[in-house]
Structures are given as structure tokens and as C-alpha cells.
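ENTRY TYPE: paired fold submission
RECORD: A
CONTENT: sequence, then C-alpha cells
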Amino acid sequence: MKYTSLSLFLALLCPVMIFSQQETPKFTLSGYVKDASSGETLIGAYVVAKPADDPETASPPYAITNEYGFYSMTIPEGNYTVIASYVQSTSEVQQLSLQENTRLNLSVQTSQVLKEVVITDKREDGNVTGSEMGKFDLKPSEVENIPVLFGEADILKTLQLLPGIQSAGEGNAGFYVRGGGPDQNLILLDEAVVYNSGHLFGFFSIFNSDAIKNTSLIKGGMPAEFGGRLSSVLDISMKDGNEKEWHGKGGIGLISSKLTLEGPLVKDKSSLMLSGRRTYIDVLMKPFVAGTGAEGSGYYFYDFNAKASYRFSDKDRIYLSGYFGRDVFTYNSDDSDFNLNIPWGNATTTLRWNHLFSDKLFMNAYAIYNDYQFEVGAGQEDLRFSLFSGIRDYNAATDFYFFPGNNHNLKFGANYTYHRFTPGALSLQADDVQIDPDDLRNKFAHEAAIYIQDEFDWKERWRFNFGLRGSFFRQMGPYVYKPSASADSVSFDKGEPVQDYFGLEPRASSRFQINEQSSLKASVAVTNQYIHLVTNSGSTLPTDIWVPSSRVVEPQRGIQYALGYFRNLAKNKYETSVEVYYKDLQNQIEFNQYYIPELSSEIEKDFVFGDGESYGVELFLKKRTGRLNGWIGYTWSRTFRTFKDLNQGKEFPARYDRRHDLSVVAIYELHDRWTVSGTFVYGSGIAFTLPESYYFINSQLALNYGEINSARLKPYHRADISATLHGKKDKKFRSDWVFSIYNVYNRKNPYIIYLDYDGNLFRGDAKVTPKQISLFPIIPSISWNFKF
């Protein structure tokens, strides 16, 4: 009887024990996070689910919205307080009893002006807890507070104030990242590749900040979803447009004006954004060229952004966006009948479809057209020449986002691009005679890739991101240069395969959480680059060209290692980080030392090939909140190149090798009406090559140059300040006045070095002295910005 009772007790207890060992059921919470005032989806918003029975937990479940504002997390059944937050926003808080898979769309109010300026869109400890290395997110509102040249706010120039990112020169919007060349930066505008990001010969970028929603730069640990470049990814998203009501924004500056309009086509379902900008330098210069014999000369640029979207349901939405911009420089001489015309610019179109298969599977599919052209035409009525180069792409791709569990994100996809290159077509017309390369000038290529990447937490302290990318490139006919003993070149029919290349690109990054305030991060990335921008630094013509890999031109290959320590101080009020990196580069390309443009399609014969390396240390300190905020960034780095056919095969510093690079940014909110800011930059002088001696051949002066880049320009440094007077708040209209001074203490920074001769060259008693030309002195500016 005793054992029977015990057996009966155990039989009743076992189901209870089994049930108690089972895990609490889990369900998926997903949805979109939007701006409450405009209905626009928010990138990088945080959604936190705090358990009702433990609201003070140090590590509640959370998710971050993707590029289209979608989030997903799988968490245990229960009661939660769900909080959505975003930069300079009022968080939305909702109570939720999670008992099944739930779709919860959230809205946050971002239009409210906060008393304290916040200069980050991450959660307070996002820089410590995330696995990303060398990633910066930038909002247009941050750009507006930075002093700029001629009052023209510029995203790319703001990025140059961050460690590891160097300016391409005085006033230039181009940039170098960790010792990589300008072509090694993948620049995307709504997924479309941008091949030239500069206006006014690079002094301004093509990106109108009023049309931009978000900017992300990745300079280390590049995820597997991105490829085709060695150094960095600059991913820029245009505004979707306001779904609720029509609004406008614009500005009038010293050299350009701009206007942006956005509003609903169908309220709460579709939106439209239109943004245009044009400079009026040509109009301002007319009084100065009048009577000089150069009437009709001038320069101007313009650009236009447009984007439309339509939401069929929470599961389907389509976007159509585009960009078109042109620079036009003209010179006309009435005296000599000489004229010069230089137009160039980009055009892109992106069609996207977002589809939600389930609460855990999200898809983005897109088709893209983009075109870049650069042309120089010059001469007189009876003798003219023109130089044309360009690249045109047709691209299709799809990306899948899968969320298998909380803090576990899987992304995979594929893409294909058809390239058409015109790597430099030079033609000449004399009277009725036309000298023009034939159709062999164009080159064609197919580029494709597949990838997968998995980001997940392991235990409490580790977070990993592993990825693998497989890439393929095929150069097609009609032509490729093939140097050999028996033939100088070989021709192919259009469409015939010329050369195939394959590449495997593993990527990995990790984060170890030391404590709540600090973490260690490491990354390694292998990359391949199949198209190349070849620069002839010795030419005064705009002859930089894009060329594909071929039998002669092998793909560039790179591998980058990075290690970083990240720590927040004073309850996340300050961010600090130290990163070290090493980058090994192979198959780097340059023109040979004696290249000049010629009437030939065999451009590969003028290339030389070599390797490179770069390494450095980056220090960063940022004050995130308060009336006074900003950052200090410092980089110590070295960048070298080794070419068998250059510099007698000896190693030489790259032109953008810069030992020291320092940036200081400070923004101070005096009160609700006035905000003042200032920047200071310092950089070691860039490397260049000086002639060591000169001599005459048949009465022609010849220069004997020393080792490549063995000389240095003077160090570059400059301070800028600005003050913004904010207009009084009004429900319908608000305007700001921005006063700025560029180069406050009038530093004469070197821009061009030339040789000055004092004496008689033929007698040999001349003294040759290198002298510099400086570009921008102290420049005050004023601009008026408005919203309605």
C-alpha cells in the first residue's frame, strides 16, 4: 500500500515536472517604426521590450530597425512595456500582452525641438554593445551645424572630420579612407552606385542634405552584403517623403539656392519628395567677364532628387527614386575664336519592392540604372578635339532579412550588374577631316555576387557577425589590349568572353562585452574590386577614367584587419574609442610616368601595376549630449605603394599618405535662438614629386625628377566658425540665418606647387624655386534657410 501511494504520487508529479522543464512559449513581435508627424519609416530606431515583472533589467530584449524601418524580435510569452526611440525624439511607450505572433507598428515624434542637442542616433550604449567597427551614422540635422565653405552644407565634408577619413585636398569633397584610393570607396544613393560625387571640380558633393534621410559610412569590418570596393561603404538614403501633409524646405546662399517639397499623393499610403538645387556662379560672374572678350563664359551646376512611394499594405511597398545632376564649365574667347566646354554628371534611377513574407522574413528587391559621363570639348572653328569617358550600369538585386530569434539576424541575397565602359575616347576634327577611334572604344562586363551573413549573440558577452561573399566578373568584347612578342593587340567580337575572374570574400567581426561601459571589437575583411579609376596626376586634363578588369588589368584585392577598444564615460555622456588597423592591397593601378592622352583605345598599355599597404591608429572622443557637444578625432597613419615600373621598384609613399590628421568639432547652444559652432583641422602635408635638376634637349627644357613623392607640401590647417540665428517658432513657417567664416585666421594652405625661374635658363645661372598657389583665403558667408 505504501509503494502504491508513492507510485501514484510520482505519476501525478511527473507531468508537473515535465511541464516545469519546458521553455516558456516564444512569439515574434515585429512591425515598422515611423515618424509620427510625417509617416516616414526610420532607419536605426531602437525597439526595447521591458518585461513587466522585471522593468529594471539591465539587458531587456531589443531590436533595431533595418534600412526600411522594419524590426523583428522573438521573445517569451508575457507582459511587456514596448518602447521605441530615435535621435532627438519623444519615445512611444505601449503596454503589450504577448500571447501570439504580433504585428506592432510604432511611431515616435521627431519634430519636437529638444533643449539639449543630441548628436547620435544610437541608443546610449550602442557604440559599445554593437559588433560594428568603424561605422558612423550621420543625419542631415548634424550637418547643418557644421561651418562650411560658402554656406553650402555638405555631408561628405562633415565625414572628413572623422578619424581615418582624409580630405582629397583644399575645399575638396573627395575623401580617402584608411590609405585607400578614391575609387576604393563604394558610394551608394538609394542602392545606386555613384561614380563621381563632386560638384565644382570636387569642391562640393552632389548630395543635397535637404533630400537626404540617412548617411552611413563603414570603414572597417565591411559586411558581406557590400562588395566591389576595398576601403569603405558610404550608404546614403533619400527621404521617402511625408505621407500626411505637404511641407517645404529651402535655402538661399552665396553661390546656390535649393528647394525641397514633400507630401502625400494618397494620405497615409503614398508620398512624393522633390528636391532641386542650382548655383548661380555664372550669373554672378557676368559683370566681371564683360568687356574682357570672354563673354559667354561661366560655370554652373545643378542637381535634382525625386522619390515616390506607395504602400499597398504592411506586407508590400514600392519605391521609385532618381537623381540627375550636371556640372557645366564653358569658356569662349571672342578674340581668338577659342572655346572650351566641360560638362559632366551622374544620373541614377532605382525601383524597389519591399515584401514581408512573414513576421521573420523581409525582402527588398530592386532594379537600378545609373550613368556617369565626363566630356571635354575645346578648339576653334577649324580645329577641335574632344575627350569623352563614362560608365553605364544596369543592375538587379534582391536581399532577404531573416530574424530566427531575438538578437539573431540572418541576411542573404544576390545581385547582378551589366557594365558598359567608355574608358577614354579622344577625337580630333580639322576642317572636314574627322579622326576618331572606332567602336572599339567601348568595353563591356558582367559582374555578379551572392552573399550570406549571420549576426548573433553568444552567451552574455559575445556578439559575432560572420559573412561570406562569392563574386564573379566577366569582361566581354569587343576589345582588349594583349601585349606579346608577336602582336601588339587582339580584337574580339562584341559579346565574346575575354576574361573571367572569381573571388571568395570571407568577412568576420566580433564584440566582447567587458562590462556595461566597455567592449573589445575585432574584424577582418577580404575584398575584391573589379573596376578601377585610373588617375594621371601629372595631367592638367580631367583624364581620370573607369576601366574594367581584363587579361591585362587584374582585380584589386585587399585584406583589412582591425582591433578596437570602446568605452563610454559618465553614464554614456562621452564616447571614446581606440582602433588600430592594417590593410594589405594588391594589383594597384597607375598610369606610367610618361602617359599623355592619345588617339588610341589600347589604354591598358599605359598602365603599371603594384601593391600597397596601410596601417594606423585612430583615436576618437565625442561628447554626445548637453548644450556643448562635439568630438575630437586623431589619426596616425602610413600608406605606401610599391610598383616594379615606378621609382626603380622602390617603395614610395602614396600621395594621400598623411602621418598626422586631427579634427576638432564643437557645437554650443547659447539658448533657443542662437547656436554657435567651430571646427579646426590639421593634416601633415601631402606627398608630391619635385624635379631635382633641368637640362635642354634641342632648345627644349627637360626636367629630371627625383624619387616619387619624396617631397612634402606644408602642413594643412584651418579653423572655421559659424553662428545660427533660429527664427521664432511658427506652425506654418520658420526660417534661420546662418553666418559663417571659412579659414578664420586666413591660413595660406598650399594647393598647387609650380617652379619659378629667376635668371637665364640657357646660361645655366637660373635659380629654380618651387612656389605655391593657395586657393581659399578667409571667406565670410551668409545663408537663409526656411521651412514651411
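RECORD: B
CONTENT: sequence, then C-alpha cells
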Amino acid sequence: MQKFPKSSRLSILIALLAANLPHAAAAEAKPLVTQYCGGCHSQKAKMAGIVLEGLDPSHPEDHAAVWEKVLRKLKAGQMPPAGLPRPSEPVLAAFTTSLGAELDRAAAANPNPGNPTIHRLNRAEYSNAVRDLLALDIKPGAKLPADDIGYGFDNIGDVLSLSPILIERYMSVARMVSRLAVGEAHIKPEVNEFQPPRTVNNPAALKGRVSDDLPFDSLGGMSFDYDFPVDGEYSFKIKLPLSAFGEGTPPESNAFEVRVPVKAGVRTVGATFMAENAAPEIAVLPGRRGPAAPAPPPTMAKMDLRLDGARVKLFEVPQAADGPRFVSIAVGGPYEVKGVGDTPSRRKIFVCTPTSAKDEDPCARKILSNLGRYAYRRPLTDADLKPLLGFYQTGRREGSFEKGIQMALRAMLVSPAFLFRIERDPGNVPAGTAHRISDFELASRLSFFLWSSIPDEELLNLAGQGKLKEPAILSAQVTRMLDDPKSKAFVSNFAGQWLYLRNLSQVTPDQDAFPNFDPTLRQAFQTETEMFFNAVMRENRPVTDLLSADFTYLNQRLAKHYGISGVYGSQFRRVTLKDSNRSGLLGQGSILTVTSYPDRTSVVQRGKWVLENLLGTAPPPPPPDIPALEAKAKDGKRLTMRQQMEQHRANPTCASCHSRMDPIGFSLENYDGVGAWRSKDHGNPIDASGKMPDGTVFDGPAGLRKLLLSDHREEFLATVTEKLLTFALGRGLEYYDAPAMRAIVRDAETQNSTIPALISSVVKSPQFQMRRTREP
């Protein structure tokens, strides 16, 4: 017989009793609700807008929205409030289990999967869809306006509006994409300039390989992908800072240019300096005990220009006084066009080639039917093809067969069937009734959930055969899709938004307060967390390992920032952590930096981040006109952060929220505003202890981690599930989604609560596979 820990046995016993005697437990709950809840939630008091007076806990489905709020507050330990009478823990646990079981039973008998609105592709989805449709990875979504955010994500259908300016931008981008994909021999030359990330003037920012696309012995520089539209010659012009040439240097004389032939397609352009030209960081003179002034840099440096990893040109150039660096790279062309080339995009588009005039229309129909099947995520009807063929014919009259295909492709890329994910209710389903979505709609939900892109051939084939909804096949597809490299989009789009990694690009720590922070460290923070999340997911580790894992991914720069020795070079590698303070997400610079102010840490922001993103109990918005913290006491002595916050909490209005946020934030105070470890703040020893409203005491990041994984493990799993389901459905969750969330958690627990298990359980849920017709 399998043995369980004592706490687990108690939970199982309570669950069994509640499941077997739900009505009896609920009936006994009536006096419980009256005794402990009636005073605040009566018709007269209406605390928090919740009235329980007159409601029957034995039939919570009659007022499911209210009872779901009650259940959530009870599970979070927020009700009854601290200081007020509350039932014993076993009685409270039995009541919450019984209440949840009754709500789940009612939901199973009459599921409500919601009715998602039409969903416009966001910028990331648009870029990925173009990449997979046309084998053209140029990220055209970056040329569209920023998407609005709802419920923490940018794929929420309700906020993805369509303005006149966005329509114009879609048309402009579609013109560019169709031209690049088809190719155009008579294209006019143009010049595009790229600048390396801005770095601060310190040795750490100027040393080391900055990209895997550059040589191992490179120093600084940049690399980027560039789409060369046709076969021809292109110019590469590199500008150096004028300071490398001395005073009086004429404009443009600081540029080095070369023209080379390039085949059409997306190529990687890189420019860097060779590391042997780097000056030593510190020179130690004979006979001295300490370091002297930095040695002067060499007067010349070797600048390397590369295309697809191969050297194009090695220049010997003057070196600026502050180290080898350059201002920009400009790519110009095409010149002396040789032809449209044999590109992946053309092979994807031209599945046939007409050999005579009479073959052109049938071939055009075949090309557009094939492309449209992927673009519209379903087979095309005659009504879909007719306007596309009309655009083709217009283009053919103006030019060649390929010009006609280009015109039709441009129209396809601005069609509502491409830009929007539209799910239709069958006409024979009564209003207010849940029904299964079609297999093609299921394929789209699945591909945009895991790939942020359109379904591939295998998904479309299974959908066309009506097999995708079969449980075994659907499960196999989830596994296949997570193993596909395109699932990197799930990490960058889901984890990137849930964990606030996207905010890193907007963070600008004060250089006086944090002189060692620069874009290189910023990128290292993001790379670490993305690789870490990816490892926990792909190794089928419990989702709780996100908080407790004893490994991470570091390069030399990041390891030095963390004070970890033995890591060399710019390459990231897996490192086992000896210091438990760095374990899991809470020890990573990305999280700690985005939850700080530019010049200092923020107890409030860090505490709020944990409550909102890990425990699902976001505090209410702060009231207006909150005064700034007082940094000094009346006698002029600098106050510690704890003393400043204690003054702030003296206001009773502020204390109610800060009583939960601040203890969490204080436990992370040993990390400074960019995640470096410290023991003092402005000379004062840091007190990282905390005490929650229920009396639980903990100390430092290790204590917080233990608290989250023991007392709040259930809330953490529920929060991860809520975030996953929100992202998967592209809509905010409502009270009627709560039973599905609980079922997902229970199902995933049978598979050790791994991220793939949670994803699989989300996909199996009625919320993901069904929708409800609208009420009349």
C-alpha cells in the first residue's frame, strides 16, 4: 500500500469525506457561514460587495460567481481576516473541499467553456505566421504598432483592436512581405543602417564574444539577420567613432566599405573586432604592490566583417581611446541584379510553374489554394479563392505571372481570414449551449498556444480527417509540438510575459547606483531565465522546480555578477548552484531587476510580484497621491529601507495591503536593484526577516522559498494553471472557468505536476476544446 505524508493523509481523508458526503457537509456549513461570515457579508454590511446572507451553501451553483470568490479567499487564507474569529483548520478545510466539490459537480453537469471573441494575430503571431507560411523569417510584426496588454498577456482577443492606422500598416507590411517572398528582379537599391547595442564605458561591456554568430576570439560587435531580396551585389559600410581618427576628421572618412555578391535569402551579417587587439584591463608595473593605471590600447585594431559565418573582409582600422568599437553597419543594394534566386520562399510559393499561357490560371489556382490552406488554417472554398484570383489577374495584366501571384499574396496577407482567428458556432446548436469546436479550430488553438503561429501540415491533415480531437492523437500532438523548435515561442511569449522578462528591455538602472549594469548584462539576465524555464519544461521537472532548482545557466559575465567562480567565456552553460540563495527564479537577476526602481530596490514591487505572479492574490491598486518614502529621519540620519517602510505603514489605509507585500519584499532585500548579493544597504546591516499576517515567520530568500513550497504550494500550482489557461484561451478567466482550473491541477498532479503535464491538461479541458453559443 502506498504511504503518504501525514499532512497528505489528512488532506485525502478530508477530500474523501467531502466527496462522499457533499450535501451533508454543505448543510452543516450553513451555521458556519452565518457565524463566521454573516457579520461582514450581510445585506446591510456588504463588505467587498459580497452578500452571503440568504445564500445556500448546499446549492452553490445557484450563485456560483459569489461562491467561487468565497472559495478563493478561503484557500488563500485571507478570510476570515486576521484578528477575527475563525473556525479550526480541519473544519475550514472540510468546508472548502466540500464547497469546491459541489461547484465542480455542477460544472461537470453543465459546462460553461465561455465564448471567446474573434482574435486578431498579435505582432509575434504575425511574424511567426509569415515565417511558417512563406519561409521568410524577417519579423515583419516589429513594423506594426505595439499590442495592448490584457490580463498580463498581449494575445487577449478583447484588447486586440483594429484601428485605421493599423490597417494601413498591415497593407504596407503585406506589400513588403509579398515582394520579398516572390522576388522582384527590377527592385530599386536601398540602404538600411543597424547600430550595435549601446554599452556603458567599462571594461566588462567591451570584452568578450557577444553572439554565437561571431568568432570565438571576437571582441564586442553585433550580428543581425538581413533579407537579401535577389541575387546581386550588396555593399557593407561600417562606421567607426570619429574619436579613433583624431580632431578635424572630415565626415564620412571614418567609414570602411566593401561590395560583395550575395545570394538571395535571409543571411546573418556580423561585425566584430578580433580579441588579440584588446588592451589588458589593468597593467601591473614591476616593483609595485597594487595595480597601476590601465595600459593604453593599441593604436590599430582588426575589424572582422562576416556573412553567414564566413569572413567577408578583415580591415585594420584605428582604435578609439575607449576601446575597439564601431558606430553602425549599413547594408546597401541590390546592385547588378543577377536574378530573383532560388530561395526557400519561392520554393514554398511556386508549387507549380506554367509552361504556357493556358497553364497559368490553373497553376495560379493551385498555388493560392495551397498557400491559403495554411494562411486561413483550413481548406479554401470557392468564395475564398474568387477574390484572390481577381487580384492575381489584375497583377498578371500589369506584368508577369509572378507579379500576379505577388498581388494575390499581398491580398491574402490582409484578409480577415488570415489576420483573425474566427470561430463560428454551428447553426443547429441552441443558444447558451456548450459545443465542441471544429478540428480545424482546435488545430489553430493548439498551434497558437504552443507555437504562437499557424498549424503545420500534420495538424491540418489530422484536422481534415477529423482525428485531431481523439484523445490519444491530441496527446501525441502536444508532445510532438513541445519537442519542435517552434515551441521556443511558448517560452518567450508565455514565460516572457508571465515572469515580466519582456520588461527587461525597458529597465534603465541608474548608472551611478549600478555602474556595472549594461545591455550585455541585461541580455544575460534574460537568457538565463529563458534557458532555465526551458530546462524545467523539457526535462519534465515539477513546476515547483521553478522555485527550488539547484541549477541555472551562466556565462562568465553573469557568473561574475553573481560572485560565482569557475565560469569562463561568453557561452552559457549549465551550472550547479552551491549557494541556495541563487536557487530558482527568486535568485535570478531578471526578476530582481524588473521589480526594482532605477536607483534602489523596491520592497513593494517585489512583494507584489510574488503575490500576483506566484500566488494569484494581487493586492488592490494603490490609492492616488501616495507620498514618497522619507529617506532620512528628522535628525538627518539615513533610514534603512525597513525603517522607511515602517513609517509608510503607520497609515492604517496603507497597512492592510503592505502587511502581506512587505514581509515578502524584505526577504529579498539582500539582492540589490540589479540582483547582486549584499549584506548591507548604505552601511546598515540588512534585516531580511518577515512575518505574515497569519503569524508565519521566515527569513531571507531561503525562508521565502520554503514558505511558498510548503504553506502555499496549492496556490502556486493554481496560479501557474490560471496563467497557462489565460494564455491558451486568449481571454480573461471568469468564475465559470474555476472548476476547469481545479480539474487541470488535479489531472497534472497525477503526472508530477510538470509543465508539459499542465499543458496537456489544459488542452484536454472543456475550456480549450469547447465554446458556448451566445445567449439571445
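NOTES ON RECORD B: Residues 267 and 484 are 23 Å apart (CA to CA). The longest strand covers residues 328-339.
STATUS: closed
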